[in-house]
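Weekly puzzle thread! Below is a chain. First person to post its structure in token form gets bragging rights.
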Amino acid sequence: MYVEFDRDTCVGMYQCVAEWDAFEKNLNDGKADLEGSSEEEDDLFVVEVPDGEEFDAKFAARVCPVDAIEVYDDDGEQVV
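Winning reply:
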């Protein structure tokens, strides 16, 4: 399972930070950062979800008010 985070879309509500420890507040930019991710495209960050953190990753995506977070299963199918 992996997460795609569109940082350009992020508006800095930080609801994801409260739901999954992989997200951190970046108060300088007014956006969240996804710890351990790699930038696949301009402002599109991707990270593998560690075992046991799948629920938290899905919940972080669900609470994002601007849908900047998407979760995909190992087959590449979007689950959130």
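Puzzle host: Confirmed. Bonus trivia for everyone else. DSSP finds two helices and six strands in the chain.
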